[in-house]
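[Automated response] Your request has been received and processed.

Submitted sequence:
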Amino acid sequence: MRFLRCSISKIPEKNNKKISIIGAGPAGLGAAGYLACLGYELNIYDAHPEPGGLLMFGIPEYRVAKEGIRQGVKELASTGRIAFKTGFYAESDVEIEKAMDGADALLIATGTLRTRKLGIPCEESPQVFPAVEWLIDYHRAKLGYKPMFGYSSFKLKDPVAVIGGGLTAADAAQISLVELGLKTIIIYRRTKSVAPMGAAEATRLEKEGAKFLENLQPKEFLCDREKNLLGGIFYKTMLSGNSREAPLIYVGEVKVDFYTAMNAAGAKPTPPPGIEKLGVKMKEDGTIIINNSWMTDAKGIFAAGDVTIGPSKIGLALKSGIDAAVSIDKFLTH
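Generated structure:
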């Protein structure tokens, strides 16, 4: 995957302005690839041991080739304009200010590194895993790195229930089914024909051996006294109208047996803690508030990618990073 928006030979002399980027996922790398071509010097900070974000540490190889990401990052580094600072996890406004390090602008592109809780009984069972965090640690271990969230053993007891119908659910099901060889059930509150992962992906997983259960929304997980997972109770659902976006209504309940669950029902934005002290404002859902130019309420601080728009596809996150970079350049040159 190529992030640089020009050839190396076309990169101009340094323009004596510096930009800091927090987050080396598609949005951050896309922005860097644009800005490097304009002569800016960039420091890119990321929590992972190498750049790439969820491209490297969240998405299985069958969807995104890791070597392709590494080649794209290598090309960015070869410009001589970009310094990658890995293993950086901003925990406070002090660390964010340190990351700015005299920069003329800051771009926050920290993405979605956490899973939204379902808010149902027995969710605290050790056999119920947040899919985003689990996938990150699985890929870090696979690539020879230490876990980020403490998951070091990936021996799961089947059948495994993957709750959700998006790409995170598809990725979790792929790992469970194909790489770990476990019986896998995908449980989604609507039909697979409208699942965000796409009907084709749902069908592919079924052909691999996954069982897809439609129109089921979790009501509660079932546990014994030791919190061992024993399955779950699900509402049977149907649409209240003709539109696929119509609200769901409940028409009964059903019990499903499984011994491991992956909560892949939604990821949540993870802006750096403490950014409010810098004047950055957020919505209730955790996304950073930006204007039409991708700037936050704090002058010179921009944001892009899933931390502003919520969970999205790679192309959309990449484009948002480039769009933010265009605005950063206008801000610094006008």
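Summary generated for your ticket: The chain has nine helices and 15 strands. The first strand starts at residue 18 and ends at 22.
If you did not submit this request, please reply to this message.
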